[in-house]
Amino acid sequence: MDVLPAFWRLSGRTVLLIGAGEAAARKLRFLQRAGAGVRLFPMGETPHPDVAAALAAGAADGTVRRCDRPVCAADARDAALAIVAVEDEIDARAAVAVLRAARTPVNAVDRPQLCDFLFPAIVDRSPIVIGISSGGAAPVLARRVRAQIESLLPAGLGRLAAFADRFREAVKAMVPTGSGRKRFWEDFFDGAAAAAVLNGDEARGREATLKLLNARAAAAPPTGRVFLVGAGPGDPDLLTLKALQAMQRADVVLYDALIGPQILDYVRRDAERVPVGKRKGAHSLGQEAINALIVAHARAGRTVVRLKGGDPFLFGRGGEEQEACRAAGLDVEVVPGVTAALGAGAAFGLPLTHRDDAQTLSIVTGAAQGGAPALDWPALARPGQTVVVYMGVGAAERIAEALIAHGAPTDRPAAVIENATLPTQRVLTGALADLGRLVEEAQVSGPALLVIGEVVRRADPAALTQRAAAAPAPAAARAMAG
Ligand SMILES: C[S@@+](CC[C@H](N)C(=O)[O-])C[C@H]1O[C@@H](n2cnc3c(N)ncnc32)[C@H](O)[C@@H]1O
Predict the structure, then answer these.
(1) Which superfamily, per CATH, for 14-119?
(2) Measured from the CB, is residue 28 less than 6 Å from ligand 1?
(3) Active-site residue numbers?
């Protein structure tokens, strides 16, 4: 992050605005909306009609005052900020120099190198205000992001925030604990009260809010709740909306080793983050200890998100965690995620059940204590299916041998897919008989799947070349090109 977003309280403060043209008019509008008093230095520019109008109106109440001389150090003494919007380059640089010397933070419009602070693109649903900045690198992109956010946010959002503000004191008085209040507000914003206010029906919103508040005040102190959330295979864009909502509600997030920092960026800023996952060879909590931790946090009234790679119920041990929560009498909700096999299939254009090749998709674990994993080899060796092996890298050679011993042809196509959906993803392909060697030569270090079946031939050649180029592969391991 090159710049720190912050929101400046300008009500009743003075801002210096240098220039009077169109750029100055745009800034003046924002300054007035923020309640700033403006001292305007036209520097010989003919005032834009909006500036002229603001000067005329502001002269009466003193909110906009005109100074027909260059800005000087004395002006800066009581100024919160300064904006240099004058066209002339020499005038602009001179003004910035004076203001900098006086230690007043300056924004110089369209001159990012001269700026102490930047104006973001703004989405205004006051009191909810969103600022979007590209740090000066791509203002047009920032404006496009703003347009997307504008289209997502209901027009009545500001009204809803103002409505909630009017109940804040009452909620504080009637719901004594912090966690109880947080839960109240979550239910409020998810429920009928907020929907009514967004629809413009404040009377119904008020009624629903009072009902919720009375029920909450009468109830026993709330216990926490638990979300078992699938975070998908790695690409944050594959998070579901429901996962995102849960992550934004969390007081504490217990996350696996497969959860990358890009995913954790979507967790509520002030949530506690606790790593509980296994990395090969590194110390980690046992499943019992993780279950106990989930239960302890929830019993303390916290909203717990147990964040897991892929889907929680697919080789994720989510079942045991759910049972532990139920046994402790806790609310638990499961949020499914995109499992690694589906992420990998999509990332490499690999249709796992192409109708000409596979009528069955078998998802199996390759985890084994030495030897081959205990699987139904005769069934897995049959033609007409795709077999995806999770946690099978260490046993790849033994898996290939077992399949071949039970009738699979040695040249059945096979792939190793590592870090699927992440920028470091890669795929290596070959024949089933070579699977062990392929894995060894590829020196796979990230999470990886083995995919075995005719569909491997159908992977998108362009995607394969691109992905393979992104991560160097050892010479003998072939990145498949068709
Ligand atoms: C404990 S399992 C978790 C599976 C997860 N619950 C899911 O639904 O994808 C971990 C295994 O999933 C596979 N895996 C997870 N993420 C992956 C990725 N991005 N690329 C390839 N394989 C992945 C690997 O086989 C890894 O050893």
Answers:
(1) NAD(P)-binding Rossmann-like Domain (3.40.50.720)
(2) no
(3) 256, 278
